[in-house]
Amino acid sequence: MATQRTSFTKLQRDRAKKAKAAAKRERRQERAAEAKEHSDDESSETSTEGPISAAELLHEIEVTHQRFEAKLMTYEEFEEKKAELLSRLPID
């Protein structure tokens, strides 16, 4: 018995999936670039010593997480930065 060839609709579905994945990848890279620019601006304004508000500290932690998820920093760098930021968390 002969094997059945791939249908045209299946080829269309596969092409649509690939196009959707490519668009998603581009959006993710754009967001990563924006996050990097934003974090560079924030890091230049924020000092590495001294007290800062809890809201600012949580924002810095969020930016660090975004940079790690976007693969802009290694796991070791991420852990160092997170530990440094959490050590600055004010405890009453």
Describe the structure.
There is one protein chain. The chain is mostly helical. The protein has one domain. Helix content is 73%, strand content 0%. The chain contains three helices and no strands.
Short description:
The protein has 92 residues and is mainly alpha-helical. It contains three helices and no strands. Helix 1 runs antiparallel to helix 2 (54-69) and helix 2 (54-69) runs antiparallel to helix 3.
Alpha carbon gap, first and last residue: 77 Å
How many strands, which pairing sense, and closed or not: the largest β-sheet? none
Q: Indicate the multimeric state.
A: single chain
Helix percentage range = over 70%
Number of strands: 0
* Number of DSSP helical runs: 3
Unreliable residue runs: none
Structural class: mainly alpha
The overall pLDDT average reads 81
